[in-house]
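Inputs:
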Amino acid sequence: MSGLEDAGQQAYELVRELYPFCRSISGEGLRETLRRIRARIPIEICEVPTGSKVLDWTIPKEWNIRDAWVEDRSGRRVIDFRNSNLHVVGYSAPIRRTVSRAELLDHLHTLPDHPDWIPYRNSFWDESWGFCTTHRQLETLVDDAYEVCIDATLQDGSLSYGELLIPGEDAGEFLISIHVCHPSLCNDNLSGIAVGVALAQELARESRRFTYRFVFTPATIGAIAWLAGNEPVTRRVRHGLVLACVGDRGHVTYKRSRRGDAPVDRAFAHVLEHAGAPFAIEEFSPYGYDQRQYCSPGFDLPVGCLMRTPNGRYPEYHTSADDLDLVDPAAMADSLAKTLGAISVLERDRRYRNLSPKGEPQLRRRGLFEALGGIERRRDAELALLWVLNYSDGRHSLLDIAERSRLPFGAVHAAARALESTGLLAEE
Ligand code: ZN
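Outputs:
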């Protein structure tokens, strides 16, 4: 098994391990998830107390749930939280009483178009209660009254998030943000966590140019809480990425930062264009994952978003069908590989200066053509030498040159290294 295949398999194992926990934007399911992440990479678990003002928002009460059910007249549990945590609307207020069938149906969510799937719903910002179930089951609820119980607490506590810093040579930071607040949903949520953990493990293996900061945080309110507490850090962010929905079998989709042409946008576009597989690149929109916080105009950080099939565009999205069968170890390995590819471009991107800029220097005399690569790559290698020499005027970086020449970054980088070794090129 290759290293990448192995990483994909380990990511899948982590998805499987985290799948049962009832996560939300606060509470023990979220904390347990962060502890499981911490068992693999040394994140620090941070707590932001209920009532804290974070930018324009306030940290809500902490939600914890022990059990929930709907019982029919014979005392049989017809809906049972222990079968699926999606059965309870996230952040439901506690309740225990008899309700009429009509009242129950007012609080019951189903998907008539997918009668065997349970929808995922939450109500973070208004205190209410609700259940979700399959439409097929709803059709069997014919009693005139039901006993409902949500054994949950909404109390002062805190919102938890996890953070890991992997220091590099440069104080400039690469921010990687992953949401961790969805219950038993695999692609939307757990795939991002699992690929993020694998990425952190890979980045920690050798010394790096950038400092990498991973933030595992509840969507929206968690990212806002992190931004509120880390404004000085945001000024050091050179590149950033949100990872979400990176485990399904669809092709890769990269959504650009609000800036549109940030180095991270260009690095991903370059890697995807040269990868030889279908992909999509989308422009920024203030909708979707936590890019919308990092790219809000007061921060406008260069943060892109890597997905496979984007949120809302696969039928299983936010339903019980976003399960262990929807995510694939090979897809997670591929998402990891493409992210590492873009990071490798950014790590190696430099500006150089041609030290012999008048006329072309004589390359054959310096053995440069022979030094580069095998036969089939040879044309790229020769072209790359000429492109690097011509555009290394101190203004164009290797990525600029790769884009202009349409050569793979690796060939341009190899040419620059070779030219540097013969004294024809110096780093700016
Ligand atoms: Zn979601």
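Remarks. The longest strand covers residues 145-155. The radius of gyration is 25 Å.
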